[in-house]
């Protein structure tokens, strides 16, 4: 099997807790040969822990590494477009963590760069690769006309989970000030370009939550049932950490619920109902490796009621998507989560925010 020489652009918690452990399991497919991070302390610790031979504190030098076939973009969201375009221009295939970008304009520029290139680029919507999700896609074909859908992201944040079992290398106040300043300015500019210059802190935070967490579920909803036609209404509360939205799918409504708080549980679920069937797709926290997903399918008649559980599925969705990326690069298969499809997800996030601004004091 052909190996891909891979570089990671960013060595934060997602790299340390999720991608590097999975890449170690896939050593028959990947050689992790290079790492970039703006923090010298993080770069050194992560490079040493994972035996990565070439370490870079400069993005241009990292992308110029002649030994790279592909780059995993794990930098802060506001830099995704810039870094992915630079990687394509340097001749590297691109595995892009979600969200693809924070703004449609940035994503459009990235899509144009990709179309001018023969290289592979895919968005890492890992929930679309989860075995529980693909099982749900199969079962959806057995259902009658959809009458209602409900999507939930009711969670406790990742640090509660991983601080109990893992040490994550964090910057020792050694990221150059100009990089920090530029990053904060770029992020705020992106948020305000979508939400408006006068947007409240709660609205700005809600857009960060939607693009950082909600886009996982919203992209999976789109793949499963199609993009909503419009946002009927939306509301933001608790400083942007609670978001509710009603989405119009034409013949049915989807209710989206998002709550981030400190009760320790992870309820990330897609529920789809017809007249006599109900499909539930359940995800667990990604911050503990190989927790199982499951799919539950209920069928009711006038005289009978059956509930089938599929799973638990222990194969890690992150592993599935990296196997898929390898196949796309080495065998030329089309990617299942292309850059262009991410446009609909950013548009939906923007419309939810606009509806919330109309209804939230």
From TrEMBL:
Top-rank taxon: Bacteria
Cited Pfam families: GFO_IDH_MocA
Domain spans labelled Gfo/Idh/MocA-like oxidoreductase N-terminal: 6-125
InterPro entries xrefs: Gfo/Idh/MocA-like_OxRdtase_N (IPR000683), Gfo/Idh/MocA_oxidoreduct (IPR051317), NAD(P)-bd_dom_sf (IPR036291)
Gene3D superfamilies (alphabetical): Dihydrodipicolinate Reductase, domain 2 (3.30.360.10), NAD(P)-binding Rossmann-like Domain (3.40.50.720)
GO molecular function: nucleotide binding
This protein's name: Gfo/Idh/MocA family oxidoreductase
């Amino acid at each position: 099997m052909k190996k891909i020489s891979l570089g990671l652009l960013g060595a934060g918690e997602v790299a340390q807790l999720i991608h590097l452990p999975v890449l170690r399991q896939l050593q028959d497919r990947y050689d992790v040969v290079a790492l970039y991070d703006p923090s010298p302390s993080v770069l050194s610790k992560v490079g040493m822990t994972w035996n990565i031979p070439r370490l870079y504190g400069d993005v241009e030098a990292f992308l110029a590494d002649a030994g790279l076939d592909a780059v995993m973009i794990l930098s802060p969201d506001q830099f995704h477009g810039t870094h992915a375009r630079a990687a394509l221009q340097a001749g590297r295939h691109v595995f892009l963590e979600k969200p693809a970008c924070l703004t449609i304009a940035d994503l459009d520029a990235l899509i144009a760069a990709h179309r001018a290139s023969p290289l592979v680029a895919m968005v890492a919507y890992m929930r679309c690769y989860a075995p529980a999700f693909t099982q749900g896609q199969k079962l959806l074909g057995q259902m009658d006309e959809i009458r209602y859908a409900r999507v939930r992201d009711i969670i406790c944040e990742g640090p509660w989970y991983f601080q109990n079992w893992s040490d994550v290398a964090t910057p020792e106040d050694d990221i150059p000030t100009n990089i920090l300043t530029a990053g904060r300015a770029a992020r705020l500019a992106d948020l305000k370009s979508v939400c408006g210059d006068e947007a409240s802190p709660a609205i700005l935070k809600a857009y960060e939550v939607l693009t950082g967490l909600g886009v996982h579920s919203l992209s999976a909803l789109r793949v499963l049932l199609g993009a909503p036609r419009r946002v009927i209404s939306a509301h933001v509360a608790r400083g942007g950490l609670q978001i509710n939205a009603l989405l119009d799918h034409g013949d049915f409504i989807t209710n989206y619920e998002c709550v981030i708080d400190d009760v320790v549980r992870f309820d990330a679920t897609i529920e789809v109902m017809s007249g006599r069937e109900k499909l539930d797709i359940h995800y667990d926290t990604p911050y503990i490796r190989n927790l199982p997903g499951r799919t539950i399918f209920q069928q009711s008649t006038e005289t009978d009621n059956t509930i089938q559980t599929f799973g638990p599925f222990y194969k890690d969705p992150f592993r599935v998507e990296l196997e898929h990326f390898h196949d796309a690069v080495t065998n030329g298969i089309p990617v299942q989560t292309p850059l262009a499809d991410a446009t609909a997800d950013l548009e939906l996030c923007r419309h939810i925010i606009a509806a919330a601004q109309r209804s939230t004091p």
